[in-house]
Amino acid sequence: MNSVKQRMPRLLPWLDQRQPDVVCLQETKLGDDAFAGLLGPELDARGYAAAVHGEARWNGVAILSRAGLDGVVTGIAGAPGFPHLEARAVSATCGGIRVHSVYVPNGRTPDSEHYHYKLAWLAALREVVKVGPETVMVCGDMNIAPTDADIFDPDAYVGQTHVTPPERAALASLQALGLQDVVRDRWPDERVFTYWDYRAGMFHQDLGMRIDLVLASGPVASRVRAAWVDRQARKGTGPSDHAPVIVDLDEAPDGDIGPVVPPPSMRAPRRGSVKLPQSP
DNA sequence: ATGACTAAATACTTTAGA
């Protein structure tokens, strides 16, 4: 979001256009009371419940859901602070799926204290996912480009975070629990980015990174019907520097996950008229 | 040009982002 407060004029139309059932937000940059005051009525009107974990100025995560929102947990058990605990994770069960919205620490520069904080935080995240439910998604800003195919130019990132072997190993270790990178699976050879620096026309030149991931365990990954980056949301006036990742799932084959029923106000005929963006 | 842009508090400059 890079401030949900600043992004309100983009977020609300995006919800109305894309009609997501579950939304994971990062970098809300708002305390929980401020979040509720700002977004509460707008979310109520659209049928969303919200699980928030925020703080003033930095960080802040949330899950919006109209597919159920049960067992909300804030933070990652055992995760370190820097030095104080930061609002970087919230999880909830939505439509039978354990959904994690995470904002992995940036790392700043390799071998800095913040970099080691990032690695320790990722290790704690892995442990939480490991002991959690089998049907799980980890969604958010991982602040790691999984491979060199996920950055515009490897030479531009020499000596930088987001691409170092230890960071990539930490991500791979998380994925080794059985989590699949559903966007890369869908677009194995495409140039796909989710973040472009505001400066120097980077978005215009498509010089970015793919650091915002949707990781899904097997029971969820097998239901993926579409997965893409909504580049439209990075265009125009006042965007975030990140674009949303959208994943469309089939209903669970065993039927234990009920269909999502929007509130009456959302049953208006909008779906048929929404044109999907060019992918990616 | 150890920068460029954006946001928020420490507020008219600094810190952080990635």
What do these coordinates show?
41% of the residues are buried. The two termini are 20 Å apart. The radius of gyration is 18 Å and the shape is globular. It has a domain at 104-280: Deoxyribonuclease I, Chain A (4-Layer Sandwich), CATH 3.60.10. It is an alpha+beta fold. The longest helix has 18 residues, at 113-130. Helix 3 (113-130) packs parallel to helix 4. The strands form three sheets. It has a six-stranded mixed sheet. Helices cover 24% and strands 21% of the residues. The protein has helices spanning 4-18, 32-46, 113-130, 165-175, 182-186, 218-221; strands spanning 22-26, 49-53, 61-65, 70-74, 89-94, 97-103, 136-141, 179-181, 212-217, 224-229, 245-249. Strand 5 (89-94) and strand 6 form a beta hairpin. The protein binds one DNA strand of 18 nucleotides through loops.
Outline of the structure:
The chain has helices at 4-18, 32-46, 113-130, 165-175, 182-186, 218-221; strands at residues 22-26, 49-53, 61-65, 70-74, 89-94, 97-103, 136-141, 179-181, 212-217, 224-229, 245-249. With 280 residues, it is of the alpha+beta class. The chain has a 6-stranded mixed β-sheet with strand order 4-5-6-7-9-8. A 3-stranded antiparallel β-sheet has the order 1-3-2, with helices on one face.
